[in-house]
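hey
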């Protein structure tokens, strides 16, 4: 964690939350387009979904863990946008499950078209647990997020060829990636991350966001028919920190946190962006240089090593998944 880079990332976030309002989403033409938003029934995902429906998507697929909560969120969006009920569908997805992600992607392959994926579902916890064969944060925020992207890319490529519309993939990020330590990113990275004896859970969420930046930079260098970006909505009152955050978190949220709607504008901007956003980290609806842990020589080495190990894992989960993109 280079100190100057971390200081810049944290200070810019504080400044942004205090003094910068993100532009209200307007003018993007989403008519005829199909959009998937995961984690769509609450927080940033809900407000992002609301904006996308307001902007005229033909079909919004809300990916949720709980169908009852998803149905309530759907009705909330319809009531506030006055759109037809048929423009929203609610599908189940459990981002801690390889099988659920594959089932969701297989269902999405049957859509007439797919233009945008907002892979918003995420996890922040300091409790160590294993889901599938990874620490749970890594399964949800990294492995299954990338697996979902890879599984949907063939459909997005097909849609682009038919509609001449650039597909977009949006994976929310965080300025906390500037604070991520690198000590677990040597040698067998997943073995390090999955060890209950050495796992640094206090830094796990920031690290997961750093790993996402590594992954999308590598993926962006391999596919050119989509725009893949990772916007930072900044610290928001989104519920990500859980139902019972500590006093310090509550105070920080009260003083500095953006509203969920304000933060969601960053995700919508990512969904409306073009090729200029491909492989980029975004802050305040602009491309921003990520942590020096990404841009320096050591970061480049770790990025390649991590992506190679990630691909090896993904190929074990779904053999041939990389060859299909």
């Amino acid at each position: 964690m280079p100190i100057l880079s971390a200081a810049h990332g944290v200070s810019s976030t504080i400044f942004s939350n205090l003094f910068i309002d993100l532009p209200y989403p307007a003018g993007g033409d989403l008519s005829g387009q199909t959009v998937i938003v995961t984690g769509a029934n609450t927080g940033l995902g809900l407000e992002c979904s609301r904006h996308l429906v307001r902007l005229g998507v033909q079909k919004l697929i809300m990916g949720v863990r709980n169908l009852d909560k998803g149905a309530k969120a759907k009705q909330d969006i319809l009531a506030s946008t006055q759109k037809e009920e048929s423009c929203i569908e609610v599908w189940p997805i459990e981002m801690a499950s390889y099988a659920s992600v594959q089932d969701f992607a297989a269902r999405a392959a049957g859509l007439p078209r797919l233009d945008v994926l907002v892979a918003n579902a995420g996890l922040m916890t300091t409790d160590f647990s294993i889901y599938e064969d990874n620490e749970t944060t890594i399964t949800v925020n990294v492995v299954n997020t990338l697996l979902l992207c890879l599984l949907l890319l063939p459909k997005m490529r097909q849609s682009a060829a038919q509609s001449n519309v650039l597909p977009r993939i949006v994976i929310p990020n965080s300025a906390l990636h500037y604070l991520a330590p690198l000590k677990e990113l040597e040698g067998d990275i997943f073995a390090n991350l999955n060890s209950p004896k050495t796992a640094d859970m206090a830094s796990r969420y920031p690290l997961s966001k750093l790993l996402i930046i590594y992954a999308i930079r590598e993926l962006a260098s391999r596919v050119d028919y989509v725009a893949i970006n990772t916007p930072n909505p900044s610290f928001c009152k989104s519920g990500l920190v859980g139902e019972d955050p500590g006093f310090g978190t509550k105070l920080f949220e009260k003083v500095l946190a953006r509203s969920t709607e304000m933060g969601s504008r960053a995700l919508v901007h990512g969904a409306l962006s073009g090729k200029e956003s491909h492989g980029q980290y975004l802050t305040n609806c602009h491309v921003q240089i990520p942590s020096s842990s990404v841009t320096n020589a050591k970061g480049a080495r770790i990025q390649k090593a991590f992506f190679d190990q990630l691909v090896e894992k993904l190929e074990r989960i779904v053999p041939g998944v990389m060859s299909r993109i």
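Residues 136-163 form the longest helix (28 residues). The beta strands are 34-38, 59-64, 88-92, 116-118, 130-131, 134-135, 168-170, 227-232, 280-283, 286-287.
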